[in-house]
């Protein structure tokens, strides 16, 4: 080992060190986007569709992928399972947090994941149901916005060809529509949420200030939120929020508007329980899947 004029040693680098450096600097680190893969092998039955008005009619916040009933649905990305199971009318729903994105698989015939577990990209999360398709969605939790999941895939042209293409879903006679509700029961389009928040120790004043911000935003920008009331427990460790929405669309609009102030609120509190009452749409159930609410259907009453 010699010394240069600048006092820095010249050394002969061992071959193994050279190979290691080449690996570190030449091989690119995989990105979060590159890790996404097709969850099933089949064509797109219905594409992602949104408009500048996020709650206008005709929105489709995901893609429907054709697949054979009973075939495996695999995780598109690696992450932690936030919800796995039945959600209202939806027999099988799995929601996986992958970094800042949440991948959701809906209309599953069976679930092969457990809430709280960690899944790798390509791991089984469920099986395709009798509808012969899977609804595949992606949402950015930092903004609350839905993302076209096909833009996140390694190969956006078509799913990997590991076998014959799945047959299109069989045609079925439409189900008869339920009878219309008697006059005066139109209010059952309303949805109600009861949420119980646990306040972090020593954060009561911050919680109150951030809750006031959320309430102010709702009052200014959420005309479809009919009631929004906060109740503090006597020992000041918990808060219950009562919310009433004119419709499923109003609830979704509310969730979009409060996404950022709610994120600030959850920095000083935790959601302990959530109860969702009414007849939520599939879009509401998908959005609520990450919170695993307890669902209650309307029985009877007068308003």
Q: CA-to-CA gap between the ends?
A: 89 Å
Unreliable spans are: 1-13, 16-34, 160-187
| Helical residue percent band | 10-25%
CATH architecture of the largest domain: 2-Layer Sandwich
Provide an overview of this structure.
The model is unreliable at 1-13, 16-34 and 160-187 (pLDDT under 50). The chain has two domains: 44-152, Glucose Permease (Domain IIA); 187-296, Alpha-Beta Plaits (2-Layer Sandwich). Strand 15 (225-232) and strand 16 form a beta hairpin. It is of the alpha+beta class. The chain has helices spanning 15-26, 204-221, 248-257, 259-265, 282-288; strands at residues 2-3, 9-10, 44-46, 63-66, 72-74, 79-87, 90-98, 101-106, 108-111, 118-119, 124-128, 133-140, 146-147, 191-199, 225-232, 238-245, 269-277, 294-296. The termini are far apart. Strands 3, 4, 6, 7, 8, 10, 12 and 13 form an eight-stranded antiparallel β-sheet that branches. A five-stranded mixed β-sheet has the order 15-16-14-17-18.
């Amino acid at each position: 080992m010699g010394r240069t004029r600048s006092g820095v040693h010249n050394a002969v680098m061992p071959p193994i060190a050279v190979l290691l450096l080449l690996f570190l600097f030449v091989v690119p680190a995989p990105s979060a986007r590159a890790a996404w893969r097709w969850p099933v092998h089949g064509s797109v039955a219905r594409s992602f569709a949104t408009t500048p008005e996020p709650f206008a009619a005709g929105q489709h916040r995901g893609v429907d992928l054709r697949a054979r009933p009973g075939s495996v649905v695999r995780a598109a990305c690696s992450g932690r399972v936030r919800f796995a199971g039945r959600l209202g009318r939806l027999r099988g729903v799995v929601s996986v947090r992958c970094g800042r994105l949440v991948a959701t698989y809906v209309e599953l015939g069976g679930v092969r994941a457990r809430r709280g577990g960690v899944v790798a990209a390509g791991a089984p999360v469920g099986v395709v149901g009798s509808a012969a398709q899977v609804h595949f969605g992606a949402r950015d939790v930092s903004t609350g916005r839905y993302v076209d999941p096909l833009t996140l895939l390694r190969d956006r042209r078509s799913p990997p060809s590991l076998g014959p293409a799945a047959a299109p879903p069989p045609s079925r006679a439409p189900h008869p529509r339920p009878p219309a509700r008697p006059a005066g029961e139109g209010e059952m389009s309303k949805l109600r949420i009861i949420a119980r928040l646990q306040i972090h120790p020593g954060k009561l004043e911050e919680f109150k200030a951030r809750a006031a911000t959320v309430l102010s935003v709702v009052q200014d920008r959420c005309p479809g939120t009919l009631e929004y009331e906060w109740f503090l427990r006597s020992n000041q460790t918990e808060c219950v929020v009562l919310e009433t929405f004119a419709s499923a669309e109003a609830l979704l609009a509310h969730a979009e508007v409060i996404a950022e102030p709610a994120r600030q609120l959850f920095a000083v509190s935790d959601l302990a329980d959530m109860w969702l009452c009414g007849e939520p749409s599939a879009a509401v159930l998908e959005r609520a899947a990450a919170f695993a609410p307890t669902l209650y259907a309307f029985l009877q009453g007068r308003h």
